[in-house]
Amino acid sequence: MVSEFVKLVSQISAPPAAVATAAVLYVGLAYFAVIVLIVGVLFKVIRWVVTPKGPGGLYWGLYRLTLYPNVHSFWKAAGWIFVRMFTFYTLLKENFGYVSAGFWLGLILFHYSIWATLLFHGNTIAYALGMYFHVPEAVKYWLGLGAGALAFVCLIYLAIRRAYVQAKTKVKINYFDDWLLIFLLLIIMGFGLAAKITAYPTQFTESAITAYVLSHYSTGPLAGHTHLLVELMKEYGSIMFVLVGLWFKALMTGNIHLAINAIYLLWLYHPLELVHIFFAEMFLIYIPWGKMIHMFMMPFNPALYGKFEPKDPALSLAIDIVEGRR
Would you call 59 helix, strand, or coil by DSSP? Predict the structure, then answer.
């Protein structure tokens, strides 16, 4: 079934303009984005690794601080960091003059729903690697859509809160980097949700799937292949999912012709997904140079290294250094 679809996609003759556009934006740019991500992260990691650490050493110009009392080892410090990573409990303290449980709830729901969404995206990668894990169509659709929608709503709330806090406190917390990140995430999630909603039938019965195929793929290169498309949707949930998986697998194996044809079919039948993919590529390029680099920072957190001196004296020393008294 899949091999028959791959053969069908391979035989498509896309117009020259479509080939050129796909080659630049979804083949060349895709490779470039991954290279920039890997090289950029390695560059930052190497800089962190070569920065002096250990007793008496410096970490980016600051003495290491212990964040909690009685933390006297690497593993105890690592344990506290993991707790903070997965509970965000430090955000429940006073922030800009008041405690905001809503900020904590919005942020923790945002991160957990993002992780869930990425888990569903992982099945696309598994499909490309030949390790697809079958999930019932309704489960995949509603859980994936629910996680993505929750992340999208939380991001909107956090963006509005950011603007509100600045207006209320007169403290400048909005920078170009922050709003660029928010813009990229809103575009990626918004178009991803829209693409997902339009790529699935309203019900997951055979009659509903057949009706969807007849209404969405009755023209163009996929016309006349109703039975094949219905069987693919029954197994994988959507043709869009299969096309994205083929594109990803083609990039991994260097099959540029197949990758371009998969993108061409996405442009014909699921153009919203192409916007989602394009800005995801932009996001990969952005990661090493913006605040999203925090995803890779845990092993290099300054709290993991040093003499684990008491917090207050160390903090005073750091302040003295910053203010030029030492």
Answer: strand
Q: Look at residue 59 and tell me whether its pLDDT is greater than 70.
A: no
Per DSSP, helices labelled H in 217-310 are 226-236, 239-253, 256-269, 271-286
Distance CA 203, CA 242 (A): 19
2-322 fold: Fumarate Reductase Cytochrome B subunit (1.20.950)
Q: What are phi and psi of 139, to 5 degrees?
A: -65, -50
Quickly count: other Cβ atoms within 10 Å of residue 232's Cβ. 22
Q: Which residues contact 275 (CB under 8 A, 6 or more apart)?
A: 187, 191, 195
Among 37, 26, 4, smallest CA distance to 273 is for 26
- Residue 209: CB atoms within 10 A of its CB come to 22
**Residue 216 backbone dihedrals phi, psi, to 5 degrees:** -105, -25
Looking at residue 173, the DSSP 8-state letter turns out to be: -
Residues listed for the chain: 326
Phi/psi at 94 (5° precision): -65, 130
3-state secondary structure of 190: helix
CA distance 190 to 194: 6
Are 11 and 262 within 8 A, CB to CB?
Answer: no
Each residue's pLDDT tens digit, 205-262:
889 999 999 999 999 999 989 999 999 898 888 999 999 999 999 999 999 999 999 9
Strand 98-99 relative to strand 94-95, pairing: antiparallel
| Residue 56 token pair | 């008496």
pTM of the prediction?
Answer: 0.84
Residue 41 near residue 288, CB atoms below 8 Å:
yes
* DSSP symbols for 14-28: --HHHHHHHIIIIII
186, 156 contact by CB (below 8 A) = yes
Q: How far apart are CA 244 and CA 263, in angstroms?
A: 8
